[in-house]
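Readers of this paper often ask what the protein records in our data store actually look like. This encoding replaces a full spatial description with a residue-level series of whole-number codes. For reference, a complete record is included directly beneath this paragraph.
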Amino acid sequence: MQVVKKFTWEVTPVNTPLFKKKCSKCRNSKLYYCSNKFRLNSQKKNIDVWLIYRCVNCDDTTNITIFSRTKTGLIDKDLFQKFSDNDEKTAWKYVFDADTIRRNRMEFDYSEVTYDITHNGLTLEDICNLEEDLIEFELKSSFNLDLKLSHVVRKCLDISLKPLEEMLSAGIITALPLCSLKKCKVKNGIIVTVNREKLKAYMENKNKTEHTPT
């Protein structure tokens, strides 16, 4: 039986993406930022909940639908309170929520989004010196992110694209659920696995190649 050693990588966005929409007021901007504020409107026993975005140029507002004509009793009390308190974490949850994006037909500009990636700093050499057969890194994220898994792997293992591609082809690095690591986006619960013996063989061969006279 193969022995496994487990670690965690946590990915957190530092800021939110910009919503691509032409401003009908100033007409000078095509981008809106998330205000982290909600708008609630009650009509009899129903309620509407929107997340407010503001134009980056003139601060004009546009609303993104979270709940529409929903009976108040169907909304969790704690969640309703977070809407009332303009809870930032709740706002960000809906900014990155795939269903909310789809229902509102939203398109985002992610070019200015940065991420805080917390990891243990293990290098490939460190992994080779461990005793376990398989080294697993479980991804933790509170949000659905438009960030390639390969970016996180390269960042956490401090490797460039070419060695990563070589190790993927050799089955040294794999991901569960099974996916094309180069195309897959970061999701909570994804497990990246490094086969230590295969990695050692790869590193030894690489060192021999680099030190072989031409």
Remarks:
- The chain has seven helices and ten strands.
- The first strand starts at residue 4 and ends at 13.
- Residues 196-211 form the longest helix (16 residues).
- The chain has a mean pLDDT of 92.
